[in-house]
Design goal:
Length: about 250
């Protein structure tokens, strides 16, 4: 199912895949990505879950909203509206990188709606220098090549947006926002925190995992930022193992 869902002043593109009776799994996109970017992990997850994806306001096939509404609290409220529309009271919530920021805020803001939480490539502090990210990704790519691991070919369609200016504005959600990491200390939902060995966010991900009272921390070897494009099989397997351990 693929539809536009009205949430306040925006229309958000939503895709739902998998058996309707399966556990609902919400996926929150990384920066610059649309909902199609989860393609590398979808074959595994679609078999196990009812997978719910959407393009947050201003990105992919979703319309843009008022500039002051490009914030993580608003993004998390938009997700709550989507789940209301789909009549999903509670879900496994999984965010990647920039999407993990929304996932964390959703878990804090809508606590009763998160069954399990997964934060991949996460930092809740201000974003790091992109040059450091690229260097880590290059190192991880070289290691995977030496190990003979398959290359994920990135489809340009995964990064396409109907409203490019709005998509750029949507990436200002972190500006002037306090780091909510300390708020996670009383969030007692089982949480998977996974980050690549070569991801510059690794120290922050480890800090977040220490603060969360019920966290499992995993380091993904030969993996940089944007782990679904580095080692999608590992990303998929970690989540499945985590869910199995809690069901």
């Amino acid at each position: 199912m693929n539809e536009l869902v009205p949430i306040g002043d925006v229309q958000l593109r939503v895709a739902v895949d998998g058996d309707e009776s399966a556990p609902p799994l919400v996926l929150l996109n990384g920066a610059g990505c649309n909902l199609e970017s989860w393609a590398p992990v979808m074959p595994r997850w679609r078999e196990r879950f009812r997978v719910i994806r959407h393009d947050w306001r201003g990105t992919g096939g979703s319309s843009g909203g008022a500039r002051p509404d490009y914030t993580f609290p608003q993004y998390s409220d938009d997700l709550a509206g989507i789940l209301d529309h789909l009549e999903v009271p509670e879900a496994i919530v999984c965010g990647l990188a920039y999407g993990a920021r929304t996932a964390a805020r959703f878990a804090l803001r809508h606590r009763g709606r998160v069954k399990l939480l997964a934060l991949y490539d996460v930092s809740l502090d201000q974003p790091v220098d992109q040059k450091l990210q690229h260097a880590g990704n290059a190192e991880a790519r070289a290691l995977r090549g030496a190990a003979g691991l398959p290359v994920v070919e990135r489809d340009p369609a995964w990064f396409a947006h109907d409203h490019q200016k709005e998509a750029m504005r949507s990436l200002t959600a972190h500006r002037d926002q306090p780091d909510p990491t300390d708020e996670l200390a009383d969030l007692d939902v089982p949480t998977l925190v996974a980050c690549g060995r070569q991801d510059v966010n690794l120290p922050e991900a480890e800090r977040i995992a220490r603060i969360l009272p019920n966290a499992r921390f995993e380091i993904m070897e030969m993996t940089g930022h944007g782990s679904i494009f580095s080692r999608p099989d590992l990303v998929a397997e970690l989540l499945i193992d985590f869910v199995d351990a809690h069901t």
